[in-house]
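Might I ask for a little of your time on a matter of protein folding? What I wish to show you is a protein chain and, alongside it, a tokenised description of its three-dimensional fold. I should value your view on which stretches of the chain appear to form regular backbone elements. You will find the record immediately after this paragraph:
***
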Amino acid sequence: MNILEVEKLSKYFGGLSAAASVDLHVTEGEIVGLIGPNGAGKTTVFNLISGALVPDSGFIRFKGTSIEGCKPHEIARMGIGRTFQSVKVFSKMSALNNVLLGYLFGRAEQPAMNHSARSESEEVLAFVGLEKVKETRAQDLTLANQKRLEVARALATHPALLLLDEVMAGLTPTEVASSMELVMKIRENGVTVFMIEHVMKAIMTICDRIVVVHHGEKIAEGTPQEIVQNRTVVEVYLGE
């Protein structure tokens, strides 16, 4: 079953095409990578799916329901969580309170900040390996842990589909390996993953399928092995 279907999705900024008639799908249970050169339109696609931008044309269906034009909080409560290319934590709040905000944001009927909310948020922090820094202010965490905190906050919304926007950018090889393990664990926990990433080792190792965009257009799609052997992809991206 396709959990996400994008059809002829387009977005223009002035005369610039950030997304041009993009078609793609994500099947439930997959880890799908979205790659391409800087400025290719990857984050624009995520912003359109998550409601941060409204498409100029095209369709987005989540679990068979059209969501184009829905507000970000509505889409989050349907079951799509996301992180951001530039870390967007609430810097002066504790790690735990950051996750509590995600917990509240993802629920249509606003629950009280009770023991249950705190307990579940602590469980999410433990899942991503941040239980020991739960009372630490987000601004005092390392970059790697700030990125994990963003993942935790997104997971606290109870997503069926998680959009990860460059969660491994700027990390050391050891931190990248740890992040790869986390993404695999998230999928094992029943969450479908759609990820933008420039770390090719990660993309080629953990993704079931890869979509490649360039100048806002999809230029290729296939398994990691197929993408590596695609001449067009090598010329415009992998060969850089």
In short: Residues 90-158 form one domain. The longest helix spans residues 173-188. The longest strand covers residues 2-13.
